[in-house]
Amino acid sequence: MKDTYKTITKPSKETLFKDRNSKFFGFAFPVSTEEDVKQQITLLKKKHHAARHWCYAYQLGADTLKYRVNDDGEPANSAGQPIYGQIQSFDVTNILIVVVRYFGGVKLGVGGLINAYRTAAKLSLEESTIVEKTIDSQFKLVFDYKNMNKVMRIVKEKNVNIISQQLEINCQLIISVRKSESEMIKNLFEAIFEVKITNLLT
Question: Which residues form the Impact N-terminal domain (predicted)?
Fold first, then answer.
């Protein structure tokens, strides 16, 4: 089971590709929601308010992928799709790439536009730090204090990540484990008779 994905952790440096006086500025941003996408595009439009086009593509998710492309007034499939092609080529997700175009007075034709947007997107990805992350599952454990040692033994032996804990008479742990190990970890806790385990995120 694949339980890793690649993404970026911080925005790329601004990159520039020129073709016949048109300037194409490329930007890559880490995003996790469509709200993040909207915010970044709004900020870029303020920063580059004199530009002609703000074309973009984004991909969200690790298990199930969701993506969108936008040509922002350029000919159909000449901007957003070439940008998205680079997201696929670099195999990254939770990412937004925006290419801002300043028109230079000379039309580039559809082929020229595809090349320019693809190149600008590629440059922004090459300027990004790409990292690999694990796809994790989260569980909630509820148990009596007397079972604390049994629970903590598994946590320690299996390097289970504790996200939050309430250790009182009734104890509660929120834990995170790699997806590929989640079934095995769940079975271990279920084998302790008085521990209740429920899925939070998959």
Answer: 20-123
123 plus 78 within the same structural domain: yes
Report residue 41: phi and psi, to 5°: -65, -40
- The structure tokens listed for 28 are 């890559």
CATH number at residue 183: 3.30.70.260
Q: Could you give the percent of the chain with pLDDT greater than 70?
A: 99
| Total residue length of the chain | 202
Is residue 128 a contact partner of residue 8, using CB atoms and an 8 Å limit? yes
Three-state helix/strand/coil letters over the chain: CCCEEEEECCCCCCEEEEECCEEEEEEEEECCCHHHHHHHHHHHHHHCCCCCEEEEEEEECCCCCEEEEECCCCCCCCCHHHHHHHHHHCCECCEEEEEEEECCCCCCHHHHHHHHHHHHHHHHHHCCCEEEEECEEEEEEEEEHHHHHHHHHHHHHCCCEEEEEEECCEEEEEEEEEHHHHHHHHHHHHCCCCCEEEEEEC
**Domain total in the chain:** 2
| 85 shares a domain with 115 | yes
pLDDT of residue 113: 98
Residue 86 confidence (pLDDT) above 80: yes
pLDDT at 1 over 70: no
**Is residue 55 predicted with pLDDT exceeding 60?**
yes
Residue 32: its pLDDT value, please?
94
